[in-house]
Amino acid sequence: MLERRSAAAGVYVTAHSFRRSMAMRWLRTGGSEALLMKIAGWGSPTMVKRYVSSVIDEEAIRAQRAQFAFEVAVEDPGSAMRRSEGGKRPVAR
User: Fold this and answer.
1) Is 34 strand, coil or helix?
2) Rounded CA separation 14/2 (Å)
């Protein structure tokens, strides 16, 4: 039923989508891995390790993007302003 309704709404949602979202949010907000394992009903830490790995990967990507944005701003302080103006440089008159 969930898949049929989500298709009718034009989105892709499964029961696993909710389970994954809960696990990822739990870990991102500092929730205990042992308690997540208990809540999710997993008998071994294998699944928890997969979700922990995903959270770490997401955090690494986020940190890398932030570092890149910082480096660009330091190298060329006007670059952020030009990007906000659609990449247009002022015309010298």
Assistant:
1) helix
2) 6
